[in-house]
Each structure stands twice: as structure tokens, then as C-alpha cells.
């Protein structure tokens, strides 16, 4: 019995440091603290107003100090450390008003345990992304979007094989980012779930090998000067939820047959040269919430299977040479249709307001510009999305007035009403003071 007490005491003492460690603040490594301070000191931290941010921006980099009680870099704003090792594993300095360049000898590249590097929405003064970024081989998340980088994207990114998130979202201009070989840049990034290259000058065809990135959930290649045929296999990536390739006017392609198990939610093809018929199987995309094909070259029939897309809230069919618009114009009171928030039906050669509008109660944005609408705006239109409509564009038609025109405009929350370039005569309803009214009379 007397021997039992020493054993219990030893056991309790052995557990004491372990239990106390949960209550002690995690301390960072000195060399990483020094690296962080050198990185911070290599930039000018601009005034909030200069960098266009409000005073509640999230990262207080200016508060980093190596003095007093503030020496623990694991407690600094924007820094995260591994709970067991104390190594810096995440650096999130988005919207921190940093101004300057990241050089090849930057102390940033001494943070070899980094898994998450987010430097979005800063101003790196059109400097290049150093090839040393490839030394951060533990990275799973790299976000350098909206940060004024320029020049060629370093091929060293291909060595970041653990990446699941890569965003270099850029402004396409003479100072922007570009890549000469998208295929080789991403071929080893087989864990990618997000690839956002919006605005990067790629100037090539879309590599077929992108269809091998089977973990992709988001692929954004808008405004990239892509051309040639878009690989249809990409539409069938098993986890793809968002495909965004708008504003690539020389990019051609067609929509494939869709399966019922497709996870696609957002499909943006505006301003491309996609053509052909919309397949009836588009009605199998049960998760689809946004489908925009403004200014493409689709033709034929708008399939009735659109009625199956009950989750669809954004639809823009504008400026396509369809020859059968009956899904829009021949709607019965028994039809169950999606409830849209955004509906673009401009430049479709409509001759009357489409019946599909009659059942819409949630519209915020409606565009009917540039059709062949004639006569009066019908009285039933007064009740369409009465409480929600904010933007209504009906310019460049042949409308002559409003049937049973009310004294005050029918939509109390309307902010923009474009009715110019019609054949209107007489008076229009009185708009609220907050509205921008664009009109002219004949």
C-alpha cells in the first residue's frame, strides 16, 4: 500500500507538463518570427483610404511587434501556427494595404512549413511572382488574386503538388500575368479543387488535360484570350460545380449531353463562340442555379426541360439566334417554372412580352432590350415581381405606352428603368425619387 502512493505521485507528475501545455500560449519559432518581421518591413503599409479599404479591414499587420508582450508571432493577426510544433502554417494577409514587391530573396520563402498563403487584394506594384514560390512545397492553398502582379507565372508552381486551391485572379491588361503553357503548369496539380485564372493572358487552346483534374470543383478561365474548341470532357468532371469561361470570344464549343448526377451549379459561357443547340438533357442539371450564355451563337429551340431546373435563379439567354422561343412565350397557368432573380432576354427577336414573366414574383433584374416588342406594355406586367424588381431594361423596342398606366410606377423598389428608344407617347407613371429613369418620348 505504501508503495502505491509514490507510483501515483510519479504518474501525476508525468502528466502535469502535458496538461499544462494546453493552458500555455503557443510560442512561435524565433527564425520564423524574424522572417515574418522582415517580410512585413519590406512593404509600405498604406493608409486605409489610399488602398480603398474601410477601417474595419481584417488584418492589422502594423500591430506586429518584437517587443514587450507581443513577441509570440503565433498570436499575430493573420498568422496561424501548428498546435503541436509551433511552426507557422498559415499566413493570411488579404486586404492588408501592403505596397511593394516580393523579391526572390524575400524572407517569405523561409517559412517552409506554410500550408496556406493568402496575399489577395494588396498592391505588389506589378512585380513578378518569384520562382522561389516553388520552395513552399507544403502549400495546399495559394491565393494571390487582385494583387497587381505582372509578368510570366513561374513554372515552379507546377511543383506545388499538394495544392487544392490556386487563385491568381488578375486584371487582363498590359501589366497583367500571363502563362505560355497552362497544360504544363497544372499537370502535376492533381489535388486541385479550385483553379481561378480569371484575367490571365493564356492565349492558347484549353488543354484537354484539364479534364484529368478529377478533384476540380471550380474552374475559372474567363477573359484569358482562349481560342479553339473547348474540351467537352471538362463538363463531366465528377465534382465540378462552377465552370466560368466567359469573355473568350474565339473560344468555340458546344454543350454535351448532361447526366442526372452532374453537380454543376454555375455555368457561365457569356461572350464566347459556343454554338449549336441547347440539349434537352440540360434539364438533368438538378443543382443548376446560374446559366448565362449572353452573346454566344446558340441556335434552335430553347428546350422545355428548362422547367425542370427548379433551383435556377439566374438565366441569361440574350443575344443568341434561337428560332424557337416557345418555352418563353407559350406558358400555361399550370406550368411550374423556376423563380428567377436575374433574367436576361435581350436581343432575342421577341415580339411580345413573354408569358414566362406572368408567374415571376422574385425578379430583381429584367432585361428585354433590343427585341421587337410592339404596342402597349400589358397591364398584367404591373404585378410581375411587384415588391422585388429593381432593374428593368426595355429600351430599343417598338412599344407605344403602358396599358392602364398607373399614376405611380408599379414597382416601389425600382432603381433603374430604361425605356428609351421606343415609340412611347403620352405620360409615364410617376417614379420614386430614388430611381434612375432613362426614357424619351416621340
UniProtKB/TrEMBL annotation:
<keyword id="KW-0677">Repeat</keyword>
<keyword id="KW-1133">Transmembrane helix</keyword>
<feature type="domain" description="Leucine-rich repeat-containing N-terminal plant-type">
    <location>
        <begin position="30"/>
        <end position="82"/>
    </location>
</feature>
<dbReference type="InterPro" id="IPR013210">
    <property type="entry name" value="LRR_N_plant-typ"/>
</dbReference>
<dbReference type="GO" id="GO:0016020">
    <property type="term" value="C:membrane"/>
</dbReference>
<dbReference type="Pfam" id="PF23598">
    <property type="entry name" value="LRR_14"/>
</dbReference>
<dbReference type="Pfam" id="PF08263">
    <property type="entry name" value="LRRNT_2"/>
</dbReference>
<keyword id="KW-0812">Transmembrane</keyword>
<dbReference type="Pfam" id="PF00560">
    <property type="entry name" value="LRR_1"/>
</dbReference>
<keyword id="KW-0732">Signal</keyword>
<keyword id="KW-0472">Membrane</keyword>
<dbReference type="InterPro" id="IPR055414">
    <property type="entry name" value="LRR_R13L4/SHOC2-like"/>
</dbReference>
<feature type="signal peptide">
    <location>
        <begin position="1"/>
        <end position="21"/>
    </location>
</feature>
<keyword id="KW-0325">Glycoprotein</keyword>
<dbReference type="InterPro" id="IPR046956">
    <property type="entry name" value="RLP23-like"/>
</dbReference>
<keyword id="KW-0433">Leucine-rich repeat</keyword>
<dbReference type="InterPro" id="IPR001611">
    <property type="entry name" value="Leu-rich_rpt"/>
</dbReference>
<protein>
    <submittedName>
        <fullName>Receptor-like protein 7 isoform X1</fullName>
    </submittedName>
</protein>
<keyword id="KW-0675">Receptor</keyword>
<dbReference type="InterPro" id="IPR032675">
    <property type="entry name" value="LRR_dom_sf"/>
</dbReference>
<feature type="domain" description="Disease resistance R13L4/SHOC-2-like LRR">
    <location>
        <begin position="96"/>
        <end position="249"/>
    </location>
</feature>
